Amino acid sequence: MKVIYDVAKYQKKIKNSIKKYGHFAEHNYLHYLYNETEWDKNILFDFGNDKILLAQLYEKNKVWCLFPNGILSPEDERLDLLLEATNYILKKQKAKKFIVEVSENLRKNILNKFKIKNSFRVCNYTYILYWPLYNMDLWHSKLKGGKWKKLRNVRNRFYKNNGVRVKDSKNVSKGELKRILSTWLKKRGTNDRVDKDYYFNLIDNNFKGIDMAKTLYVNGKPCTITAGWKIPNSNNYYSSIGILDYSYPGLGEVANIDDLNRLKRQGYNYVDFGGSDKVLLYFKNKFKPEKIYKTYTFSIVRR
Question: Do the Cβ atoms of 267 and 287 come closer than 8 Å?
Fold first, then answer.
């Protein structure tokens, strides 16, 4: 195992691993880079043969984090690679803790593994994220029928009362995009964790690494930013970004309807609307996901 602290020099290695072993919504090279800040450093664990683990180090408090489901390897090797990285982080680096976000299945495997007495302890999970998946075969662009009545009424009322046009977010001024972002950030709940640096990085880099970035203009004013990318080794799409300035009722619904219609036309099988708590999941349920999967965040510490 090789631990790499200058991750930017290993672009080809990370991209090759994502191409070969990528399986989760957040497996996107530039998405990983955008998450790095002055205080949160990206760290790469290289196990050879394109098998890697993506991590971050919060230097101020010596806390390490696994990038969400960031173990890129054959599925049957992920647990062993995580344990090898854990040993380095907690024993050699003497970190305070190693925070991981993993699938429900991998969490079960970790708990079973740690039943055997060893140097580490798995803490209770701190939170669960719920990830809704939308089957494009079941998504009706015209929203016909009783199942879609409420959403159809919101859409019809919005277009009746407002002039709406759509523009590629890459062609919207950075000043306008940052205004939308700043308004959105101010409206977020105090308990809602938002890494604002990530979004500013995305805008400053003109959405490089994004497959689709879209802004709705309502009555001549840009009001939304939605963006995402194709999930590797699948025909599914991750809707990573959903930002709006809350200037009109129904704005969020209309932006997502427009996205889903476009993605259906592009031939995707499923659209993943990303992880959220149950409060935000209530909004996402309006679009009728076929299924919802979960990821767990918890810490591993020394005994």
Answer: no
The pTM for the full model equals 0.94
Beta bridge partners of 135: 270
For 235-274, write each residue's pLDDT tens digit. 999 999 999 999 999 999 999 999 999 999 999 999 999 9
Distance CA 268, CA 286 (A): 20
pLDDT band of 60, cuts 50, 70, 90: confident
> In this structure, what CATH number is given to the domain that contains residue 243?
3.40.630.30
Shared domain check, 267 and 146: yes
The number of domains in the chain is 2
Which burial class, exposed, middle or buried, applies to 254 when counting CB atoms under 10 A from its CB (0-12, 13-18, 19+)?
Answer: buried
Cα separation of 291 and 302, whole Å? 36
My answer on whether 114 and 206 are in the same domain is: no
Tokens of 24: 């989760």
C-alpha–C-alpha distance, residues 213 and 40, integer Å: 26
Q: Is residue 133 part of a domain?
A: no
Q: Diameter of the chain by CA atoms? A: 65
